[in-house]
Amino acid sequence: MFETPAVESLAQLLADTRRGDTPIDAPAAALLPADIDAAYAVQLRTLDLLGETIAAWKVGAKAPMDLPNCAPIPASVVSNAGGTLALDDFFRPGLELEIAFRLARDIKPGIYDEREALMFVGETLVTIEITDSRFATSGLDSRFTLADLQNNGALVVGSGRAYDASLDYLTPKLAFSLDGVNIAPSDTGFNTGGDPRTLLTWLVNHNGRRGITMHAGAVITCGSYVGMLPARGAGVLRGTIDGIGEASVTLK
Length: 252
What we know:
By secondary structure, the chain is α+β, with helices and mostly antiparallel strands. The protein has one domain: Fumarylacetoacetase-like, C-terminal domain (Fumarylacetoacetate hydrolase, domain 2). The chain contains five helices and 13 strands. The chain has helices at residues 5-19, 36-50, 114-118, 142-147, 196-209, and strands at 54-60, 69-74, 78-80, 84-85, 94-103, 121-131, 152-162, 174-178, 181-182, 219-224, 229-230, 235-241, 245-251. Strands 1, 2, 3, 5, 6, 7, 10 and 11 form an eight-stranded mixed β-sheet that branches. α1 packs across α2 (36-50).
C-alpha cells in the first residue's frame, strides 16, 4: 500500500471521525492527498484503522467518458432492505437509488474485458446508498472526497434477480418515494456514468492493478439513477427498478 505520513494522518482523522459525532471542520492543507493514488491509499488505511472488512464497493463517474472513481464499503454500514437507519447517525445524509451486482465468485487480480468480468456476476440488485461526508465544509478538493470513501455513509441492499444482459441498464423505469410520496426528480432515470456494467469492469481492472481480490458475495453498486437527493425527513424510503427488484429502509 502507498503510505506516507500524510496518508496515515488523514486516515487516522477520518477513522476517528467515523467513530465520533463531530465532523471535520476544515482539514489542513497538508492533509490533502498528493494524487488519487494517495487518496485510494487513505481509503484502505482508514478501514485498517477501524478494523473493518470490505463487504461492498461503489463505483461511478460524472459522465461516461470521465475517469470513474471508486471506494470500498465497510461491512458495518451494509444492511439488507427492510431495516431502520437513524438520520442523526449521519452528518449530511443524501439519498441515491442504484443498480448493483453481487459477485458469485472471487475475482483474483488480473485484467478482464467486460464479457469476462460479467462471468463473475451472480445477481443484479437494487440498492439505496445513503451518502455522507466526514467534512463539515462542502466544496473541498475532490481528493478529500475520494479519500473519505467517496462519501459513502451506508448501503441498503434490496432484492434482485439472476444477471440478465437483456435488461435496460441505461434508462430503466424506476420509482423512488418517501412515505409514498415521489421524490425522484423529473429529469433523472439515467446513470451519469453510463452503463453500470462498464463501470463494474473498470472497477475489477482498477482493483486488479492494485493487487486486490474481490470476494464472492461482495456487492458492487454502480452509480445513482436519481442523482443525490438531500435527506429531508424521516419515513419509509422505497426504490424500485423495473425488471430487477426493490429496496426499502425506514429513516428515523
